[in-house]
Amino acid sequence: CSCRKPEPGMLLRAAREHGIDLARSFMVGDKLSDIQAGKRAGCRSLWLQPEPSIAPLDHLTPDCPDAVVADLTAAVDWSR
User: Fold this and answer.
1) What average pLDDT does the chain have?
2) How many angstroms separate the CA atoms of 6 and 72, rounded?
3) 1, part of any domain
4) Residue 23, number of CB atoms within 10 A of its CB
5) N or C, which end of the chain has less CB nearby within 10 Å?
6) Which residues have CB under 8 Å from 72's CB, separation 6+?
7) Which long-range contacts does 71-75 make (Cβ < 8 Å, 24+ apart)?
8) Does some domain include residue 3?
């Protein structure tokens, strides 16, 4: 089903139904599937990781998040 992450179906449907410009939107998530869905839908994607990770993210390309943040406050700060 394209409505389950990492497929972007639910994001694309929400954008269509609510007039959301995904190119100006952010997907914030704590799982790789969240980041993948956001990137595939055309959003900027932020990976929420309260505990710093030592794992390199290079292997995730093209699904690499635009940023890794510790909390939602940091996500808001990054988006400004």
Assistant:
1) 89
2) 21
3) no
4) 10
5) C
6) 28, 48
7) 72/28, 72/48, 75/26, 75/28, 75/46, 75/48
8) no
Q: What pLDDT sits at residue 80?
A: 87
Question: Which segments of the chain have a pLDDT < 50?
Answer: none
- Total domain count, the chain: 1
pTM of the predicted protein model: 0.84
pLDDT of residue 1: 81
**Parallel, antiparallel, or unpaired for β 67-69 and 26-29?**
unpaired
Residue 59's pLDDT is 62
Structural domain boundaries enclosing 58:
9-79
Contact 26, 46 (CB under 8 A): yes
Residue 41 covered by a domain: yes
Give the CATH number for residue 74. 3.40.50.1000
